[in-house]
Amino acid sequence: MRKKILTAFLFLAFSAFGESDSQWVLEQCTLTYHVSHPLHQSEGVSHAARGKGVCHAGQCDFLIAVAVKSFDSGDSNRDLHMIQVTRGAQFPMVTVRTRLPEAASASATIHADLEIQFAGQTAQYKQVAFELVTHGNETRISGTIPAALSDFKIDPPSLLAIPVKNEMPVRVDMTWRPQ
Amino acid sequence: MLRKASRNWRSGVLGLMFAYLLLTLAPCLSAQTAAAGALTGKVSDASGGVVANATVTATSVDSGQARTATTGADGIYKFDMLPPGNYRVKFEAAGFKVMEIPSTAVDENKTAVLDWKLEASEPTAGAPTPASRDNLPNAPSSSTKAPSLEDLGFTPAQTQGSVQDQARLDKRTHMLKIHQRLGLITLAPLAATFILSANAGGKNTSTTDRTTHMVLGAVSGDLYFMTAYYAIRAPKIPGTETRGPIRLHKALAWIHGPGMILTPILGAIAYNQKNNGEKVHGIASAHGPVAVVTGAAFGLAVLSVSVKF
What we know:
CATH class of chain A: Mainly Beta
Number of strands of chain A: 11
Order of helices and strands of chain B: HEEEEEEEEHHHHHH
Oligomer: heterodimer
Strand order of the largest sheet of chain A: 1-3-4-5-6-7-8-11
Mean pLDDT of chain A: 87
Largest sheet of chain A: 8 strands, antiparallel, barrel
Radius of gyration of chain A: 20 Å
Strand content of chain B: 15-25%
Number of helices of chain B: 7
Largest interface: A-B, 49 and 50 residues
Radius of gyration of chain B: 29 Å
Number of strands of chain B: 8
CATH topology of chain A: Lipocalin
Distance between the termini of chain B: 52 Å
């Protein structure tokens, strides 16, 4: 009987501990967008994203934000055109929000509902798959967001009168650690 | 002989002036005849009451040009003679939150209607910050505990956009698009000039061949300088380091730019020598080589930003 009470106490204590507020911090992040054109295959990379996750009652709210102008495609002219076409001077930040159960950090794969604000528009992506690999204190998350220019009402830029493809997948590689 | 050459020269110059006027005036004439649209609507509060003296700003998504209107006593605003396109529309009124519609379409010869209901502002709140706009009602993470941009260490200066900067970028892109198109158009008369140069500079050439070559060269030159104008006058973006193929594109301008000035000067001397029955000699004999280098540099400049090497 005493053993049962002790077990129940420990279970409650751990449950209470699990529901207490905790936070995750984005340690490293590489975001890569890919744009296709018959004459060009372009990629723009940013390492400037910042992120934070706040956990409460078993749910974690994550926010990742990055400046539009931080993406570098290796061509300053193309980068300026991208900022212009994505209205990056007027809406300088890209933000990604998601809510995940705290227990998801133990999974090998997660499917997240993302809300992305970009170019003055908000788009939602359902059940985007990400792979998780945990090394010690750090959790590496990688996946591809199937973004499209039309999701954000962006007119496809054109070169030699040929527009780029509407699809603009964004590769995500992030390393998170609990705070 | 001299009179004939002079007549040919005059007809060439007249042809050139006509082509120049056609090219210069055509966009203006088409712009003047383009049909315009209009945008109107009624601004009201949450209870449906009209809001007078509200400021409504319509900014063209394409050109960045902005126009402002004020609602009358009936809460109605109107923009006449708007160029067709997409517009961002911002509503501002004392005691109400600033609201902005990212895009509304205005079509040719039509009046788009955009009625808007303003929300009363919080007593202590000013204009909404990007962070507060992030907490949308439908956001999956709308919890009050959700992190904000300030939590991530972004300053308001980093997160707040600038309509003026966007307008500058829009203008830059607009001018560079014209630069690109004119550059491609210039290739056509330039190529024709090169092809006809065989008939203009050989031993058995006619005055007509030389004049055709000269006129085509002059048209190429005019188009070239119009192309250059749009690149030179495009707004510069401060703090931008030039990287990538655009560096080669800009560097080549130092070759084809002076070449485009030198080539017609040398060409005019060669033209006169030929018309006088002389063999092309002296500095004029450099006309061909200079033109080849100039044309090659120009072609490479086009390729440098068109094809990924």
